[in-house]
Design brief:
This protein has 136 residues and is an alpha+beta fold. It is 29% helix and 33% strand. About 15% of the residues have low confidence.
Length: 136
């Protein structure tokens, strides 16, 4: 039986094809929303829903709107944006050092170099006077 030795540059090339940030950070992140008071309805422009506090797995490269509602409180709407992260930039720099132009492209296209802001989204709801609502 013959033992084959893989050339180190071949291994380096394979690693570069994957993209450093894509491998180390992944293309999704846990995004969290917290409200005061809790148990508010959270709805994302992507159609996802949950009751606060909650955590959803979101793609790093997506920007989305968040609407938060709770009976007897004013609704809140805000945007969560995707931006280049410090750790993502480090992963991209790893591609440049290793010489992985293809890996850098993979990282940029996958969103692995980005992060969602704000994360966590923390919202204090303001009471609203209305029928059936008590004043605080």
């Amino acid at each position: 039986m013959k033992l084959r030795i893989v050339h180190p540059f071949l291994l380096l090339g394979i690693a570069a094809l994957g993209g450093c940030a894509t491998i180390t950070r992944g293309t999704t992140e846990a995004w969290t929303v917290e409200t005061d008071p809790p148990n508010a309805e959270v709805e994302l422009s992507s159609g996802e829903r949950c009751l606060s506090p909650c955590t959803l797995q979101k793609k790093r490269k997506e920007t989305f709107m968040v609407t938060i509602r709770k009976e007897c409180y004013r609704p809140v709407q805000t945007q969560v944006v995707s931006q280049v992260a410090g750790a993502g930039a480090a992963g991209m720099a790893g591609n440049v050092i290793v010489g992985g132009i293809i890996g850098a492209g993979v990282d940029a296209a996958s969103g692995a170099t980005k992060e969602l802001k704000p994360n966590p989204l923390v919202v204090r709801l303001e009471p609203e006077n209305g029928p059936g609502c008590r004043r605080r």
